[in-house]
Design brief:
Length: about 300
Amino acid sequence: MSARSVRAGHRTVEIHRPEKVLFPEARAGHGPGAGLTKAGLIDYYRSVAPFMLPELKGRPLMLERHPDGLGGARFMQKNTPASYPGWVRRAELAKKGGTVTHTVCDTTATLVFLADQACLTFHRWQSRADRPDFPDRLVFDLDPAEDDFEPVRRAARQLGELLGELRLPSALLTTGSRGLHVIVPLDGRAGFDEVRAFAADVARTLVARDPDRLTTEVRTAARGGRLYLDIQRNAYAQTAVAPFSVRARAEAPVATPISWDQLKDPDVTARRWTVASVLDQARTRPWSGVPHRGRALGPARRRLAALG
């Protein structure tokens, strides 16, 4: 069983079973038909680290691990094992009846170490570890009834127009699966209950404008083929896929930030980018126009109420 070491930031991280194929069908740039190995996954995360780490820094994570690749078992890991190195940051946070010690990924070394643990996908909280009750992100998850991106594209445009009326900037993230996340940066002053209530009011307003195509119905059977505006990720300890995370699908698609202009491109879909192609997209800095300082909910809530 082979092993090697890689340099990651100021640390050297040992890689175990680098030749293990995690994505047999993925084109990873390591030769035709080679698939994506653990070494390839680690190379990807090292390369994307300058773009990804700012999106992970300070946030508690849930880690989606596939030790035997796509054909094996999946583990959704919240608690940080005691065996992890001491330099991996932890955040002990409250849960019902106790606490959970979440992993926080602030460095390239941690990113590489977690990839060596066969963590394919990083799911992040909407709040940060030092202020866990106060989200600085609001997420609308546009979930289509079928694997068809056109309803997602249309709903995103509608939601973007409504957020524009509320004077709330927003960013787009392909999920690497079927849908799209519309992310609103917040100032972190409102608690989760207030943020989720506002998100629900926005979603209901949008559904009222297009009730034949959109729904807030949680039950799949009651959606009637309409696109689901999911606001449930806006709650304590709930997560959403982190930008530049690899998804557990055959071609190793990646959750990818895009600009609003790119949404118009018919070639842009939820799985448009993979580990083999996403770095060029990352270098375009598609979220560069989104303000770094989040907005307060109060003015937006008043504008929403005024819309009737």
